[in-house]
Amino acid sequence: EVAIPLNQFNYKGSDIFDASINGDFPLVFMLLTLGVDPNAYGRNEATALHWAAFKGHADICTLLLQKGAKV
Prior knowledge:
By secondary structure, this protein is mainly α.
């Protein structure tokens, strides 16, 4: 096993937020599969779904919604 630190709440480097902003679908998928909360939020209560939508990453928005992200 490999330990992967999952930083869900630190907006300065949160994996799920960074992956959503950058359009990194495989990483978002992996993080969600490993149990990262799709509703985790950072500064200004922005979630990964907010960032993916803002950046126009429809595929990531769909994935987050399928994994339980709240609108």
